[in-house]
Structures are given as C-alpha cells and as structure tokens.
Amino acid sequence: MKLGFSAADELFRQECADWLNGQMEGEFKDIRGITSLTDMPERRKEWEQQLAAHKWSCIGWPAKWGGRDATLAQQVIFAEEYARAGVPGRVNHIGIELAGPTILAFGTEEQKARFLPDIAAGKTIFCQGFSEPGAGSDLASVRTKGHLEGPEGAQEWVVNGQKIWTSLAHISDWIFVITRTEEGTVGPKGLSFLMMPIDQPGIEIRGIPQINGDAEFNETFLTDARCPADSLIGQPGEGWKIAMGLLAFERGVSTLGQQMSFRNELDEIIEAAKANGTAHDPLIRQRIAKAEIGLRLMRYGALRMLSQTDHSRIDGAALTYKIQWASWRRGLGELAMDVLGQAGEVNDREAYGWDTLPNLFLYSRADTIYGGTNQIQRNLIAERGLGLPREPRG
C-alpha cells in the first residue's frame, strides 16, 4: 500500500492547486465556498465548462474522450486539491464519476462517441434513476417497466414507473434508468440499463423539500417515456451487472476528495470550539480527537482500497467504506451542534439559510440512508463480503 506521493506527483499537486485557487480567486470567486448543490445552477454549469476547457473535467478518462489519462495518484491529488480550494461540489458529478465510467466500461464505441464528449465538455448533465418508493437500498426490487415498440430499425424503449431521490434531476439533461424489461422476472434478473433524455413529455420532475430548506432531490415520474433502442447499455437483462459496476465506480477516487471536504468541516468545528471556549471541555476535546483519528483511518483505508480494487466491481473493502464514512460524518454533525450550542439553533437569515456547521448536521442525518442504508450495508458486508448465509426474504 502506497501512503505517500512521488516528487512528480507533488509537482502535479502544485499545478492543480495553483489553477484551482486562481479560478476561485478570479473569474469564479462568486461560487467559492458554496455548499448547496442547488445554489447558482447556471453559474455552476459554466464552471463545468471551464473545467472542461482546461482539461480538468475528467482527468482520469482517456485523452480521446476529453480526459488526461491521469494516473490513480493524480486523480486522488486533484480530488483532494479541488476540495481544499473550497470549490463547490460538481453539478455533473453523476455524469463524470458514474455515467461516463459506466459507458467507458460497458458501452459500445458508438455510445461512447454519442455521450462522452458532451459529458466531458460540461454540456450534458446526468442524474441517476435507481431508487423507487418501494426499492431504495434494495435495488433488485425495482418495479419500473420498459418494453420495445416500433418497427425493426426504428424501435424505441417505452418506460413506465416512478423514481425517487433523483438528485439534481431538475437541472439535468439525461437520466440513466434501471428498469425491468423482462415480464415476470423478480430480483436482479430481467433488469436493463437505459439512457433517457429528460426533456420529453413522458418525464415529470417534482422537487422534494429537505429539512435544511434545500431541494436537491426529486421524484421522477415516467409515463410512456421514450428513448432509442440503442440507448440500452449492455444487453437486455444485464442491468444488474452494469448497476453493480457503476456502484463500484461510486466508491472510486472521489472518496478522497470527499474526505478533504470532511477535513474542512472538522477544521471549522475545531476553530469554532477554540472561539467559543468549548475546546477547554475535556469531553469535547476527546470527541474532536476521536473524529481526527477516524478521518485519518478513513484516508488510509481509502488509499488501500484504491490501490487494490478492481474498479469494475465492489470488493470487501469497498463494501465497508460507505457505512464507515456515513456513520463518522453523522457523528461529526452531532459534534458540530454540541460545539456551537444554542448559537447553532439560531438563524438570522431568510428561511433556512444556515451556516456551514448547522447545515452539516442537518444534511448528515441522511448520510446513513442514501446510497444504501446502514442496515442494507451490513447485509451486503455479511453476504457478499463474508459469504454468510443470505437473510431470509419474505
């Protein structure tokens, strides 16, 4: 396991930091420090295109498709410096980190040429159509249905169903959808993976207000929604395999950038504790130390995972990572509120314009739910990681 970086890597780190800080102090200083994914969406799309213009949008992709053929170490470095510079989260994270790598791994050359250039250029924003009201963490319970219609050579997939928790669907151009395309199948069999344009009469997006006043999530209703037959990734019935490949990419290099964001949050908590005197409380000091240790352990674990993992599948280490960081960050949100005290419950802005730390607390309540609840993650660790007997299904 490699825990450090070479001299050449550190030169690359300086290049990343110089460019990112230059942008955040110059043309794009107005978006620096934004934590909400729904603030200034048009400006954020301009930022996506700025990244692409300077070949920073998807550095791990092949140069042929807009990337830099960056090494794993370089991808980690860029993710870390991106968060360190206070650059806001990317509105095309789903396209760059999930849809793109999935198309690279499973798509045809025609599909790569069709989708990848516009994703890399920041011109096409993607969202994810996996979860449903009755199929959240249990993706195999998907009920959305699709079938082919039309004459040979001009067939279309027609899809009916409902997706939920569709992050940023309201500003997206395309959605990838897991749908059941083989009548009578249950569980992971009979699912297919489709790429669908959102701007069509068959797709309706409804926002879901969150506890922190944001509206990042949406319900997505598909009523005879359509896409060309060649928008299918892989073969009919291979949707489960492709979805599992996509989720493996989700546990990829962006995890190190995520941890740098956690680093920024913990540093802000420490500064708040020093400012209001709670740093002198031995219990608060102990909790801060525990949070620091947990963050460092996550970093070493993520580096080990990235150095050993086949990124087309989820291995044992990747199975544990989500429950680890989600539980840690939920505790961090609680620590933030205990440090702030009553001041963290008072807000003089309009509506729910909370500062960073109260917003951390509110948002972190969802960390152990989305992307697979802690309960489901424990089942995955037991069944897939440890090979224990499957939980009885009713």
Automatic annotation (TrEMBL):
<dbReference type="Pfam" id="PF00441">
    <property type="entry name" value="Acyl-CoA_dh_1"/>
</dbReference>
<dbReference type="Pfam" id="PF02771">
    <property type="entry name" value="Acyl-CoA_dh_N"/>
</dbReference>
<keyword id="KW-0274">FAD</keyword>
<dbReference type="InterPro" id="IPR036250">
    <property type="entry name" value="AcylCo_DH-like_C"/>
</dbReference>
<feature type="domain" description="Acyl-CoA dehydrogenase/oxidase C-terminal">
    <location>
        <begin position="237"/>
        <end position="385"/>
    </location>
</feature>
<feature type="domain" description="Acyl-CoA oxidase/dehydrogenase middle">
    <location>
        <begin position="127"/>
        <end position="209"/>
    </location>
</feature>
<comment type="similarity">
    <text>Belongs to the acyl-CoA dehydrogenase family.</text>
</comment>
<dbReference type="InterPro" id="IPR037069">
    <property type="entry name" value="AcylCoA_DH/ox_N_sf"/>
</dbReference>
<dbReference type="InterPro" id="IPR009100">
    <property type="entry name" value="AcylCoA_DH/oxidase_NM_dom_sf"/>
</dbReference>
<feature type="domain" description="Acyl-CoA dehydrogenase/oxidase N-terminal">
    <location>
        <begin position="9"/>
        <end position="123"/>
    </location>
</feature>
<dbReference type="InterPro" id="IPR009075">
    <property type="entry name" value="AcylCo_DH/oxidase_C"/>
</dbReference>
<protein>
    <submittedName>
        <fullName>Acyl-CoA dehydrogenase family protein</fullName>
    </submittedName>
</protein>
<dbReference type="InterPro" id="IPR013786">
    <property type="entry name" value="AcylCoA_DH/ox_N"/>
</dbReference>
<keyword id="KW-0560">Oxidoreductase</keyword>
<dbReference type="InterPro" id="IPR006091">
    <property type="entry name" value="Acyl-CoA_Oxase/DH_mid-dom"/>
</dbReference>
<dbReference type="Pfam" id="PF02770">
    <property type="entry name" value="Acyl-CoA_dh_M"/>
</dbReference>
<dbReference type="InterPro" id="IPR052161">
    <property type="entry name" value="Mycobact_Acyl-CoA_DH"/>
</dbReference>
<keyword id="KW-0285">Flavoprotein</keyword>
<dbReference type="InterPro" id="IPR046373">
    <property type="entry name" value="Acyl-CoA_Oxase/DH_mid-dom_sf"/>
</dbReference>
